[in-house]
Amino acid sequence: MNSYGVWVITLALLYTLALIIVGNVAKRKAGRGEQYFIGGRTFRWWTVAFCITGLFSGSTYISIVELSYLTGISAIWYGVAETLQVLLIALLLIKSFREKLIVTITGLIGDQFGRRAKALSGAITAFAFPMWSVATAIAFASAFHVFTGVSLSLSVAFTALLLFVYLQSGGMWAVAFTQTMNTIIFALMFIIGAAAFFIKPGISGLQQLAVEQPGMFDWDGAGLQVILVWFATFLVNVILAQAAFQMALSCRTPEEGQKGLIVAEVMSIPFILFGILFGLSAAAVVPDASLGLIALPRYLMGVLPAPLVGMFFLGIWACALGWGAPCQFSGATSLGKDVGSAIFPDASPEKLVTYTKWSLLLLTGLMIVFGFLRTEQSAWWNVLAWTMRNSATFAPVVAALFWPLVTKRAVLGSLFGGFTAGLLWYHLSNWHPSDFFLNIHPVWVGMSVNILTMIVFTVVFSYGTWKISAASPVKSSIILGTVVVLLAVNGYFYETLHAAGVIGLTLFLNVLAVFIGSIMFIKPKSATMVAKKEVVS
User: Fold this and answer.
1) Residues 448, 451: Cα–Cα separation, whole Å
2) Sequence-separated (6 or more) residues with CB below 8 Å from residue 400
3) Given CB 3.0 to 4.6 Å as the disulfide criterion, which of 166, 266, 286, 305 pairs with 23?
4) Which pLDDT score, from 0 to 100, does residue 537 have?
5) Measuring CA to CA, which residue among 61, 86, 79, 89 is closest to residue 193?
6) Which residues in the chain show pLDDT less than 70?
7) Where do the TM regions start and end (predicted)?
C-alpha cells in the first residue's frame, strides 16, 4: 500500500467514526415509531435539501464522472434528466403526499389494496434497494482498490457494514445528519478537484482532447437511444422515488418539503458540471483505462499530493454513502414496517421499529452477498433493481392515486405479472447489463405487462361494476389520437426504432396511453357497487 492508500484509509476511518457518533446522537432524537421512519416530520427545508442532494446528486455525480470519461459532455443529459425528476416531484407530488402522511410507496399500496398487496410490494421493493446500494458502493470500491489493493468485494462489505452501524441507531435522523456532513465533504472535493484540473490538464489540455477526440464534445455522444432511456427512466421514477419521498415527507410542512427539493435542484448543478470536468480531465491525462472510476484515481495520483487525494476520495466515499444510506433505510422500512405490519397487523409502532432494524441487518447481508456475486458490474445491479421494483409497483401506485375502480385482485395480479415478466425478459437476455433480448430493455416489458394485467383484471373480473364515462371531446380526441399515432409510429418505423434500441420505450408509451385512457373513461357505476366488489375480491 502506498501513501495515497494510507491517507484514503485513515480519512475513511475517521469519517466512519464521525458517522458512528452521529448515529448515537441521532438515537436520542429517533424516539419511537414514526419518529424513527420520518424524523417526527420536523425537518426544515434546508435539511430536506441536504438529504436530496446527498441522495440524487451524489450518485449522479459518480455516474457522470464515469459517463463523461467514456462518452464526453453528453453525460450532462444524465444530470438534466435527474434534475427534471426532482423538479417534477417537487411541483406535482410533495404537497399531496405530505397531506396524506405517506411514509412509503409500498405503504400507500397496502393502505389502498390490503395486506397481501402491501406484503408483496414491500418485499419486492425492499430487496431491490440493496442492489442500488451495492451499485454505488462498487463505484467507490473501484477507486479504493486502486489506492489500497484491497479487493473490490471487501471494500463493498466494509461500506455495507458502515451503513448498518449508524442507520440501525438513528433511523431517518441518522440519514439527515449524515447527508449534512456529506455536503461539507462534497464542497471540499470540488475545490480539490478544480485545483487538480488547473494544474493538469488545464484548459489547453481539454482543447487538445477536443482535437484528438472531437466526439467527446458532441452533445449526443452517448447515443440518442441511451439519452432517451435516461430521461424515460427518471420520468417514470417520479412516482416511485420512495427514498426521496421518505426524506422529503419528513418535513414540517408541504411547503418546506417543496422548497427543500427546489433548493436541492440548485445544489445539484456543481455535481453535474464538476462531474463532467473531472471525467474529461481523466480522459485527457489517462486515456487508456477501461473505466472512468479507475482512471480518476490514477489521474489524481499524478497531480496532487497524497493528503489532498485522500480528501478528494473521501468525497467519493460520501457520494456512495449519500446514496446507499437512504436506499438501505428505505428498503428496510418497506420490509420491516410495511411487510411487518402486513404479516402482524396488531404490531405496535415500537415493534415495527424493531422489525426495521432487523431488516437493516438482513439487507446489509444481502448487499455484501451481491457485492461478492458481481463486484465488477455495477450497471448489472442497477438494471436488475429497476426491473424488479418498477415492473411490479408502477401500475399499483398509479391506481392507488387515480383509479378507484381497481380491485385487490387486479393489484396482486399486476404486481406478480409485471415482476415475473421483467425478470423473465432479463433471463432471456442472459442477464446482460446492456445487451437485451430483441434489443428491448426488460423494464419496459415488465412495466407494460404490469399495466396491461391491471387493465384486463379490472375490466374482466369487475364486469358489471363499471361504465364508460363520457369525457370532454378535447380529452377524448387527445387520448385516442395519441394511441393511434403511437401505434402507427411503432408499426411504420419499427425497424428504425428497433435498431436504435428504443422500440421497447415507444411500445411502453403506447401501453401507458391506453392506461391513461382507461383511468379517464372507465369509471365505477356507483360507490355502493365498488364497496361490494371490494368485499368479493
Assistant:
1) 5
2) 108, 109, 111, 112, 113
3) 166
4) 47
5) 61
6) 1-2, 22-42, 98-103, 139-140, 143-144, 147, 163, 165-175, 246, 249, 375-379, 470-473, 526-537
7) 6-25, 45-64, 76-94, 119-140, 146-167, 174-199, 227-249, 261-286, 306-325, 355-373, 379-403, 410-428, 443-466, 478-494, 500-522
